[in-house]
User: What shape does this take?
Amino acid sequence: MNRQVFNPYLPQYEYVPDGEPHVFGDRLYVFGSHDIAGGEQYCEGDYVSWSAPLSDIGKWEYGGVSYRKCDDPGNSGGKLMWAPDAARGADGRYYMYYCYAFDPHIEVCVSDKPEGPYEFYGTVKYAEHICGGKKVEEDSPFDPAVLVDRDGRVYLYYGFGAEGQMHLPTKEELLSAGLEEGPELDAILAQCREITFSPGAMCLELEPDMLTAKEKPHMIVPDSIRAEGTSFEGHGFYEASSIRRIGDRYYFVYSSQLSHELCYAASAYPDRDFTYGGTLISNGDIGLNGNTVPRNTIGNNHGGIECINGEWYIFYHRQTHGTESSRQGCAEKLKINADGSIDQAEMTSCGLNGGPLCGSGRYPAAVCCNLVSRGTPQKIDYTALDRTDLAMILEEGDGPEETHTQYIGNINDGTVIGYKYFKLENLGEIQITLRGKAEGKLSVSTDFEFSHIAGETDIRICGDEWSTVSVKADIDDGKQALFFRYTGDGRLDMKEFELIKRN
Assistant: This one.
């Protein structure tokens, strides 16, 4: 029997953002960066391999470290590796493309297996008759994506279109983030001073060797400035290039100037004539059904689309720990319309599950898809988060990561926690595991606005040990969302809840 799949889809102790999903053979692989719990910088870990059989995509298996920072001969291990992508070459080998933090080059490593281990292959460079064979470093090589088309032609995409928006770190900010005075700090500052933004998303064709550029890059999707007056206005290219072919159309997925959303552009060609399509996902559900208020603490976003067992999904990430650099991968089913357009997906807790979760049993609190509290900001600004009033996903534990526990911490007056969706049948009671020092009321509803209270109980908790409270619930059978809201004084942590059927 296939197991259920939650969001985040990997084990809760794992932090693999920027997820690029690819089906190779009979398995689904995800290629991404590697954050750590509570991390102060993006992508502090080495690349790791995770995959699942298509016959049971809830059975994610760890394949080990696929590529270490120090495996690149130009990196002693101090440079952080950002979002990668991978493709199978004509020779049957697997090529992974990546870049360092603000280093103006795209590197390539190769393996005989999609899970690795990978070994360094080279730096993307021009053919000798183009620019003398030098490395490709124009237009901010950043967040690479790669497509091996059906005719065998290979296309590389990249870019960092943040003109006028991107705040580059100062020396003081880098020191406060944990870096120390020394060569590494000086090198990062020097790179920041040399950064030149791209005019948008860039594309170039590679030789079959997967390494040599046949042409100079050209822009296919404009940045926010050049998007004015075009179909991309308001959703210009920022970063996070990703590319897929569906039938005879090409879909370019990217993070827009808003950063929290992944948008798409479509074309009949892989390297030109792209037009704006719409938003695929926002990690705050902004734009969904006209919503303008974040339903989560929003942050940057990156991901790709993939067809899994006949259904298309969008992979993206969420933020945890009250930081932008502790991100976890999530996925949602997409609806592709007959005209090729794609509707914006809703953030859910059931993601890859293929449908609602079972209406009975125990669930981790951290699989929530909505989490809003007094400290939830209305825009992305992690330098100004009020963490005293911010409810957030946290993690605790000693020893191996797989023994750690994730929970929702700092639940305060007015906090709303949402889960979508469950297939309920004869639900009679919900038991919630809590701790903290708080006195108030816990309410349950099937909608975010709490227009109908389905259950309620008084809360009086004082202590560091987990304890359970019970709420009698009056909810109709069928596909339902569940929302919890705390009102009162003090602070709570929530570990899990259990749905119990009526006798």
Summary: The two ends are 26 Å apart (CA to CA). The chain has a mean pLDDT of 94. The longest helix spans residues 183-194. The longest strand covers residues 478-501.
